[in-house]
Amino acid sequence: MFLCGVTFLASSLLSAAQVQNMEVKSASMNKQITNLTITPDRRASDERFPVVYLLHGYGMTPAEWLKVQPQLPRMADDLRVIIVCPDGGNNWYVDSPVAPHSKYETYVTKELVAQVDGSLPTIRDRRARALCGLSMGGYGALRLAIMHQDLFSAAGSMSGLVDFTPFPNRWGTQDIFGKAEENAERMQEYNVINLTHLIRPGLDIMIDCGTEDFFHQSNENLHRALLERHVPHTYTSFPGTHNYAYWNNAILHQFIFLSRHFAAADPPKAKK
Fold first, then answer.
1. DSSP character at residue 66
2. Contact in structure between 89 and 265 (CB atoms under 8 Å)
3. Which of 73, 97, 143, 193 would be a feasible disulfide site paired with 163, CB 3.0-4.6 Å?
């Protein structure tokens, strides 16, 4: 049934979903941020949708999601979800302890969610909010979901950097967290693999990473850590590396997982 769902997505009719930019004023960073939103065609005037916040990787922009998977608008229509692609720059979706101007955790969890709920036909309930992302965005999706379980009920990571230890001072991390050799204790506090003890029942998690990806071993280690703590989760690893070809396929599986999560959660459709 899982593969049938993926095939259905690829063969669906032309989407009527609206793809638009959403400008959000971040009070915490005193700047305007442009985000991409994909909203399904409403079949009834009172129809409301769950939301997937889709976090991009390092060096990417929100619009690149449509290059990773051009079928995103069709997926939004087929699965009846709103997709919001924030612009996280290269800031790792955290409130930086060393760069006061970088408060992207506050931005996503407070400012962006508030404007999305105020502007789009969302179901305003944690059971109808999820995070998903790739690489840096996979890290952000898992960490933000763990740290804000009152706000999000599911998280999906594709090729996520879940442990900084093997990769010191790479991908701009020294600008956001400080130099690894001077802040080893701090880096451990931000590592997703060190946050598993915070996960409570009610947070659904899916992790996937290509077998040839340089983050594969770290994701295997996270999978084992979750097993040791008896944290329910879905873990998959397909042949592939850290590239668009892998993510183009992986995101289909992630969205089927999230769609099933929303269906099982059965959030209140009329909550406004």
1. H
2. no
3. 193
**Segment 21-63, tens digit of pLDDT:** 999 999 999 999 999 999 999 989 999 999 999 999 999 999 9
Distance CA 18, CA 22 (A): 12
What pTM does this model have?
0.93
Q: What single-letter amino acid sits at 196?
A: T
Instruction: Provide the 10 A C-beta neighbour count for residue 66.
Output: 15
Identify whether the C-beta of residue 193 lies closer than 8 Å to the C-beta of residue 218: yes
Token output for 196: 């598993």
What CATH number belongs to 2-265? 3.40.50.1820
Q: Which percentage of the chain shows pLDDT scores above 90?
A: 88
169, 175, 180, 182 alpha-carbon torsion, rounded to 10°: 140
CA nearest 7: which of 71, 51, 68?
71
Tell me the C-alpha distance between 61 and 55, whole Å: 9
Q: Tell me whether residue 54 is exposed, middle or buried, using C-beta atoms within 10 angstroms of its C-beta: 0 to 12, 13 to 18, 19 or more.
A: buried
Structure-block tokens of residue 162: 């879940």
Amino acid, res. 115: Q
Task: Sketch the domain layout of the chain as residue ranges.
Answer: 2-265
Looking at residue 37, its pLDDT comes to: 98
The residues of the chain scoring below 50 in pLDDT are 1-13, 270-272
Which residues, 6+ apart, have CB-to-CB distance to 43 below 8 Å?
none
What single string gives the DSSP state of each residue in 72-139?
HHHHHHHHT-EEEE---TTSTTSB-SS-TT-BHHHIIIIIIHHHHHHHS-B--SGGGEEEEEETHHHH
Q: Which pLDDT does position 14 carry in this prediction?
A: 61
- Give the bridge partners for 132, in sequence order: 54, 156
